[in-house]
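My current task is to audit a protein record that another person submitted. Alongside the sequence sits a line of tokens, each denoting a local backbone shape. Where you disagree with what is written, explain briefly why. This is what I was given:
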Amino acid sequence: MKMLFAHTVKQSTKIAGVVLLSTAIVAGCSAGAPAAQPEEKPAEAQLKTVKVAKIEKQKIGDPIEQVADVASSIQMDVVLKAGGDIQDILKKRGDYVEQGDVILRLDPTDVLLSRDKAAVALRSAELQLTKSKEDLENSKQELRNGIAKLEASLKEQEKSFNKMRNDYDQGLVTKFQLDQMETQVNNLRLDLQGNKDKLKTLESTNSLAGLEQQAQSSNLSLKEVERTLDNLEVKAPTSGVITDLPVEVGMSVQGGFKVAQMQKLDPIKIKADLTEEAAKLVRGKSELTFYVPGSGEKTKGKISYLADVMSASSKSYPLELEVSNPDKKLKPGMKVQIQLTEDNDQIVVTIPTLAVVREGGETYAFVLNGDTVERRKVTLGRLNETVQEVISGLKEGEQLVISGQHQLKDKEKVQLAK
């Protein structure tokens, strides 16, 4: 029994030793071999993250303005058409007059005498012409009557002559008697033809031309004097303000002398000199808004002129507005502010200034379309603090990249920041 137990213990000891030895070998192998690494998946491309904002319209600033001058639409000199002594002055400097109002009168005494003389000369010429016409008509009638008598006498004489020729053929009259009768007939024919020629001459020629011309000349002289008489009342050629009246009662003035100067106030003109950039803002418009500083009342004026070519003297583009001025509030010499643009012109497409990418002297912006960005070349306009006007390249409603745009390329796919 003791021998069996001892054998069993010995056998167990051997087995335990083998197990321990195997464990040690396995442990040594494990320590010397590298640890196995887990299998890695392929890395995905990292998309750039951007922020976007919707492109909108907003007010970029106040309307662009230009100082302008108020001027009369017409400046007109009042010049005498006749000379004489100033008898009355009915208006004074600064008065507003309507067209046709009498400003002053000249003494009509001498002109009235000339008118009377011209009237007498005309009457005399007309009487002489009337008498000459009557005499001429009487002469024509006498010739017509004489022609009628000669025609009747010639007819009778021709009958007698024809009868005498028959008598001559029969030997009842002599050759001398026949010749005498023929001479009488021929004389009657000559007298008749002479009277007809005289009548034709009277009817085909104007023997009264000299007298008619004299009467016409007298008539023109009278009309000229009457016109001079009318011109002795110096009237306003247009409605406006008298700005100069350098005359006094009793002055003797000659025809052509400037007795007054007027300025037309309705309509009135507003004038300005524009730069090339300012002229571009106005071209294509038919009217502009203006106001008198401090009044707050804005009015529109029609553009009557805008130069196509820059003035060589002022180096600018002259602009003129025509404005109705019935209440005469606008006066020459006043200053007004013209709005070259309207309030609506200030509502434009804008983008943040920081969203602009500048490269090589050009300006760009990125727009998100789906998951891809597009690089757009843009033309910029006015700047107002942190936003800038976009003239071309972008549209209202598009998605503008406002962050990360400096690292982007055209047609690159991106992801939106959460």
In short: Residues 29 and 35 are 11 Å apart (CA to CA). The two ends are 85 Å apart (CA to CA).
